[in-house]
Amino acid sequence: MAHPLQLGFQDAMSPIMEELLHFHDHTLMIVFLISTMVLYIITSMMTTKLTHTNTMNAQEVEIIWTILPAIVLITIALPSLRVLYLMDEINNPYLTIKAMGHQWYWTYEYTDYENLEFDSYMIPTQDLPKGYFRLLEVDHRMVVPMESPIRMLISAEDVLHSWAMPSLGVKTDAIPGRLNQTTFTMTRPGIFYGQCSEICGANHSFMPIVVKSIPLKLFENWSSLMLS
């Protein structure tokens, strides 16, 4: 989860988020180089002692400042397209979960199991046990097996919502009457927090998302307990 004075992204908990972090660092270095070059050129122009600096026709310079931005755009666009296609690729998921947004809670349905469905409400501050996070903890967490491809089917019952989990690199809109899908794979066990990222009404900031990643054997025990 996020922490005070955090400047960067959350730690990656899925392969897609790792790719996004690498792309972010790659693009940020290009931005730093461009900013440094522009600052150097501006400083040089302001401090130069040359007199004839109002040249109106410089074909070489125009060619350079046309080709260089094109090269920069290509070096950014190609990795971006690669990550974009990776995010849309869904191959043989081990488990499919349907998340339905409501004002203002989430409903999770494990479509591979019969009658495994529950609502997930935020725990009010006055009822929060010690050690839990205020405005982020829910009464029923979404439990998934680690190191297993998970497909999420996301929609909404009433208004627009958005199912977002920063540490997984997932943010998918929940639109009434439309079924969107995304995928992720948890690389290690833990509890991860997200929130609705679409302004959906008065209690928009009070419908958090909590995903709990556990080993497959423990997940089978949990699912059996929920179905019993």
Task: Please characterize this protein's 3D structure.
The structure is a single chain. With about 230 residues, this protein is an alpha+beta fold. It has two domains: about 15-50 and about 55-90; about 95-225, Cupredoxins -  blue copper proteins (Immunoglobulin-like, Sandwich). Helix content is about 35%, strand content about 25%. It has three helices and ten strands; from the N terminus they run ααββββββββββα. It has a five-stranded mixed beta sheet with strand order 3-2-1-5-8, with no helix packed on it. Strand 2 (about 105-110) and strand 3 (about 115-120) form a beta hairpin. Helix 1 packs antiparallel against helix 2. The chain is elongated, with a radius of gyration of 24 Å. The two termini are about 30 Å apart. The model has no long low-confidence stretch (mean pLDDT about 90). It is a multi-pass membrane protein. GO terms for molecular function: copper ion binding; cytochrome-c oxidase activity; oxidoreductase activity.
- What's the CATH class label of the largest domain? Mainly Beta
**Could you give the order of strands across the largest sheet?**
3-2-1-5-8
Q: Distance between termini?
A: 32 Å
Task: Give helix and strand order, one letter per element, not per position.
Answer: HHEEEEEEEEEEH
Whole-number tally of structural domains: 2
Radius of gyration, rounded?
24 Å
How many β-strand runs? 10
Structural class: alpha+beta
Largest sheet: 5 strands, mixed
